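From the thread on structure requests for the teaching lab: each student submitted one protein with a one-line request. Submission from student K.M.:

"Model TF-B3 domain-containing protein from Escallonia rubra, tokens only."
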Amino acid sequence: MPEGRGKMNHGNMSYDDKPCFYKIIFDDQAEKARIPYGFMKHIPNEELGTATLESSSGRRWSVELRRKKDGLFITDGWQEFIRDNSLVNYELVLFTYDGKKHFSVQIFDPSGLEKASAPLIASMYQEAASSSKIKRKRGRPRKSTVSPFNLRRPKPRDGASGTPMNP
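Reply posted by the TA:
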């Protein structure tokens, strides 16, 4: 949805005629995200500074809104938002401005489907990690790979007695 106003449902909340914009994630946005020039009219100077991004799950991130000569940016805290939501290239983040330094966000994968929110992703990761932990018995040596350097050659044996021969 391009910048503008729209009617949408976000989680349990409904947003009527709230300004919104989207960003497609690229590697060069790891440090900061530029807010579209036309959207700047919705954020007065007195609302610059610390703002909140809130996902549909209710998870919140504190970020900084900074106006520079080349635009308005989401800075400090943006990296954590990217990391916590495992954002990668070509994913889309939809920002709906609720006013008073608060943005509701929805995240979509490159196919257009909404991604699971950060707490759900974290709990799925923790569950997978805990179920994959297989404990090794103490004192049991680790299996090593076979290489020509750790092979021992058997000593030649005397055919009749089966005892090792001394060379």
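TA comment: The beta strands are 4-10, 13-24, 33-35, 49-54, 60-68, 71-74, 92-99, 102-108. Residues 144 and 150 are 9 Å apart (CA to CA).
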